[in-house]
Amino acid sequence: MVKPDEHRSTSRVLDILELVSSEGSDGFTLTEISSRLNAPKSSLFPIIHTLHARRFLELNPVTGRYCIGLGAFTVGVVFANKHTLLEHIRNEMRQVTEGCGEICQMGVADRGKVLYVAKVESPNAIRLISSVGKRLPLYCTALGKALLMCWPDDQIRALYPDASLMPAVTANTVTTPEALIEQVHQMRQAGYASECGESDENIRCVAVPLLANGQVMAALSVSAPLFRFDEERQALALEKLFIAKQNIESLLKRPDFAPELSGFLELI
Predict the structure, then answer these.
(1) Which overall architecture, per CATH, does domain 83-267 show?
(2) pTM tops 0.70
(3) In this predicted model, what pLDDT tens digit does every residue of 227-242 receive, in sequence order?
(4) How far, in Å, are 3, 188, 197, 209 from residue 18 at the CA level?
């Protein structure tokens, strides 16, 4: 969808890249891209052809489906490598995973969803399968609820004006704005967010918000299979998350990270 202050052709390029990089997709045909973006194939084809030629898209010659290409990966790697702040945060995340043995993930709010921007894998053979770059709803994830902990109630209601925007992902998913707001109130009191089987019936997750300059910049979480994440393990995960939170928030106050933090906050 082209916004009034955006250049149409540039917006189309970015819409295509965001669509083909969406989580769980095995690619899209030109017809499917046209349908999803509500744009004629005749105007999309020259853009897609150029993106393919520049290796920002790859084409499967058998299925005719386009997916994200090496050129886009290269740009993403440059972004990740230039942000030393993100690497410091990853180091704290490694400490969390080493301390509790479960996957640690970092997410930011992005257009009503959680965008997963970093992770450190669990060493366990049976573990949550996740990927950087995926997006999940805010309302059914611990990361999302941690990000909402500093939002006023009216802002949450504006994001979810009715229950139709909160479809159930599992039988445990919270599906009304008022129920979500009640959860967020309880989580503010506790100081952390949690969910059990709301986004995946077999997974439990806890998360803490990361604050910078008085606003939530991101959230950190630990997730694990239900059979392994009992109260004792959850308490251990929270202990490690709160240590990481304290260390990261102290880091964010350092003047040498101020320019990088400012740029990061503008992105989110």
Answers:
(1) 2-Layer Sandwich (3.30)
(2) yes
(3) 999 999 999 999 999 9
(4) 16, 33, 28, 26
